[in-house]
Amino acid sequence: MLEVKNLTCGYPSGFILENINFGLKKKEFMGIVGPNGSGKTTLIKAITKILPIQAGEILLDGADIGKMGFKEIARKIAVVPQNFNMEFDISVEDFVFLGRIPYQNAFQFWEGKKDEEIVETALKLTETFQLKERLVNSLSGGEIQRAAVARALVQQPQILLLDEPTSHLDIGHQVMILDLLRKLNKENSLTISAIFHDLNLASDYCDKLLLLDNGRVFSAGTPEEVLTYQSLEKVYNTPVIVQKSIVSGMPHVFVVPHPEEYRKSD
Question: Does domain 2-222 bear CATH number 3.40.50.300?
Fold first, then answer.
């Protein structure tokens, strides 16, 4: 479905992603992991043409994304960013309706019956229908994330990209959002790729992982293949222990404090 081949892109500041290669198949749930500054968000910006590529290509169902317009891309790929800076009051329902913009004509200033049905379905699917009259700025972090997923769903995308969907959320809301994403992935056949900082959540919810380090792909594969202590210690530069979770059976990562930290706690 999505193929990234020999991708190189970057910023004037000097940071670049270099020679990135991976594939995302239909119905897969892929996690993107790596240290701060490794290029995770940069990769999403490249996939959605926000950041121009310098070399290589990104293919969606065999078609070059670089030759697509932004409206065409928005009908195929939806993005849920890490943060929303709402500078004006808007209801949840109107916020979700914004996801229908890629389907509107240049001089269309109203929504049709089909748009209303799509929005209502997304609100119910994400359990935000009861919040539709609330202002987005009045919502909790978990509620905002669910509304953001609803807005992305009304784009009717083939692929959903999320930039740290569990950031700033407590553990209860983290599980709520990830359970929703897994439901969309398994029951609605939505292909998903999400950036994670929590390696254990990525391991439990994702089919495959892409581990980035300094703008390059360090490893890619199943959680068992990627989350090894040898790889993680090299990439994150800190000692870890990797053990199989007694609940999920997937690898879980435990940080090992440095000896001097033990002495400080005495």
Answer: yes
